[in-house]
Write a structure and sequence with these properties.
Layout lengths: L1 H20 L2 H4 L4 H20 L7 H31 L3 H6 L4 H29 L12 H26 L10 H5 L14 H7 L3 H13 L6 H32 L4 H4 L3
Helix pairs in contact: 1-6, 3-4, 3-6, 4-6, 4-7, 4-10, 7-10, 7-11, 10-11
Length: 270
């Protein structure tokens, strides 16, 4: 039974690999947008670093580090949603669930695809930041692991939630998914400390797992101690987000099947 489940999960990832291998349009975004983001923000950070050097503030590690980590989160989220959209765009969604594939296996396959694509993007980002701008993120030490873990889990959660949104509202709702990272960023304290936000925004930020990552990163770069409990709280929040997102996806799927809304994936023009 376990071997059968593993083969079904691997089949979802293999399908995404074949789709990507046969399309330049699907392959190029793995590194092109990452490279452009790193170059643009890297030179902007270097300029700000020279402007503020007299005040003792270094913008390169904090701002470029925030860009890299946030871009990693976006790649994780889009890895899930794009793999889901591939089934919608190719009108293969109904075929997927006409098979013995279960919801947990389907979501696990989407996560597997996201792991591969986000790992490629992360490798490109690390190479660019170290070779072009001389910034090594391995200087963070072992704390880099929970940083990436929180952002990975949060990206998976929003990716599954975005897929549930499209499953609920129909294929045309995919345009509601793409702006999600931009909407979350102001509350996640990506580019500035949490203290700069008004009180009501800080309340929202404290339930967003990424805010603990970026606050901890700035504390480390400023050579200040940061509460380990805060980062642990971020990991816990991100894990809870994944569970809630998967539950919502399952509920939306069951609703779509019971009401017949799932038939829109063969009738509606995507």
């Amino acid at each position: 039974m376990l071997m059968t489940s593993a083969r079904r999960i691997a089949a979802i990832g293999l399908r995404q690999f074949y789709l990507m291998r046969g399309s330049v349009a699907r392959f190029l975004p793995l590194f092109v947008w990452v490279a452009l983001d790193m170059i643009l923000w890297g030179f902007l950070s270097r300029y700000l670093d020279t402007v503020a050097s007299s005040g003792g503030t270094r913008f390169v590690p904090s701002l470029l580090g925030a860009v890299l980590l946030w871009d990693f989160f976006i790649r994780v989220m889009q890895g899930v949603t794009t793999a889901f959209f591939e089934e919608v765009w190719s009108r293969n969604f109904l075929n997927i669930f006409a098979s013995p594939l279960s919801i947990p296996e389907f979501l696990a396959g989407l996560v597997l695809s996201s792991v591969v694509t986000s790992a490629v993007g992360l490798a490109i980002m690390l190479v660019l930041t170290s070779s072009v701008f001389g910034l090594s993120f391995f200087s963070f030490g072992l704390v880099l692991i929970p940083f990436l873990l929180v952002l990975f889990l949060f990206g998976i959660a929003l990716g599954v939630l975005g897929s549930a949104l499209v499953l609920w509202l129909g294929p045309a709702a995919e345009w509601f998914v793409w702006p999600i990272p931009a909407l979350v960023a102001p509350f996640a304290a990506v580019y500035y400390p949490l203290s700069t936000l008004p009180a009501w925004m800080q309340m929202v930020s404290r339930v967003l797992a990424p805010s603990y990552v970026f606050e901890s990163m700035r504390a480390i770069l400023a050579k200040k101690s940061f509460p380990i409990s805060g980062l642990a709280w971020g990991v816990g929040l991100a894990a809870i987000d994944v569970v809630i997102a998967c539950w919502i996806f399952y509920r939306v799927y069951r609703h779509a099947v019971r009401t017949g809304l799932i038939a829109r994936y063969s009738a509606e023009t995507v």
